[in-house]
Design goal:
Elements: E1 3-4, E2 7-10, H1 14-26, H2 28-31, E3 34-38, E4 51-53, H3 54-64, E5 72-82, E6 85-98, H4 100-113, E7 117-120, E8 124-130, E9 133-138, E10 142-145, E11 147-150, H5 157-161, E12 169-179, E13 192-196, E14 206-215, E15 218-227, H6 239-248, E16 264-266, E17 274-275, E18 278-280, H7 295-315, H8 323-329, H9 331-347, H10 353-365
Parallel strand pairs: 1-10, 2-3, 2-11, 3-7, 5-13, 11-18
Antiparallel strand pairs: 4-6, 5-6, 8-9, 9-10, 12-15, 12-16, 13-14, 14-15, 17-18
Helix pairs in contact: 1-4, 1-7, 3-7, 8-9, 9-10
Length: 367
Amino acid sequence: MNKKFDVMIVGGGPAGVSTWLHLHKYAPDIASRTVIIEKKEHPREKLCGGALLNDIVNKVFNKLQIDLKILKVEIHNLVVKNGNNQFTFKKNSFMSIINRSIFDEYLVNIARNRGACIYENEAFVDMQHDNDNLVVNTIKNEYSTKIIVGADGALSKVRKKMSIPNRISYASTLETFMPVNQEFDKEYYNNSAVLDWSCISDGVQGYIWHFPCIKNNEPYMNHGIYDSRINRFIPQGNIKKVYTKALENRGILFSEIETKSHPVPYFNNDGVLSDKNVLLVGDAAGIEPLIGGGIHLSLLYGDVSARAIISSFKNDDFSLKDYTKNVNNHFVGKYINNSTSMAKKVYAGKMNLLDTIKMNLEQIGKH
């Protein structure tokens, strides 16, 4: 006999947990009939730059009555570079750098304390329609549900099982964590972070980042490179070569460190984010390609997805046919679409990069 829940959320990261927390706020009865499944057990390693844009995150957390009490590095100065030109965006606690494994576990524990049903070490396998319901198979159980929320990240298995065009595009990243070097890593001591777009001249449609952070309760730096590849007609640069040079400028030899990579999917504004009984959130739906930040957007997806779920039960209509339109009309969609338009123009040389980044940062502040 299969287990029955009205809603199943696949993925216990920020997007999935945010969806449950918003459901709990707006419709606690539906939240009580919702299950979250997570393929691993928290705390689990999660590759991520760890940047929280506090203008957005604080508003979401204030609404959800969440007080984020974890170790983090507060960023008051964001240094944006492009060759010999640069500007510093100054704002008290504009950004926080967190450890994703700790952050995700913190949110999961808040949801648990509020009554969330969370099954860990249980990976999604498949889903099939059964009249107006979905039959979902995991590695452990079979479930029956009205709605499934695909919050399972960049390589979403839920998305792959949907009967929609799989039109998601991926950016490339490389990153490493290193103990703070007092000679080179001044950012840790003056609460600064660096986004350096100078690599555009080398064919990289993105930037190199240097973020101060805390790892194992010790001062660390997160050094990475992001290449959106949003304009496929532009010859691709060698990001490993560019990244190696950037690390050498900090006294780091690429050959002597552990470097990891992970895909970063970005949103197509003409794409489809839902199917009958299924909707996508967070990285499974896509992030914006200009700066590539994902955590704050994942938290915002929770609001629009929860509202779509509530509307489905209210109207007894589980087609979710308006979900993509609702995402595009929500701040998360407007921000992503605007950033996507900017990214295409900037990386094609049709907009001034520094002016564009200023506009993007100002847009965040107006949320």
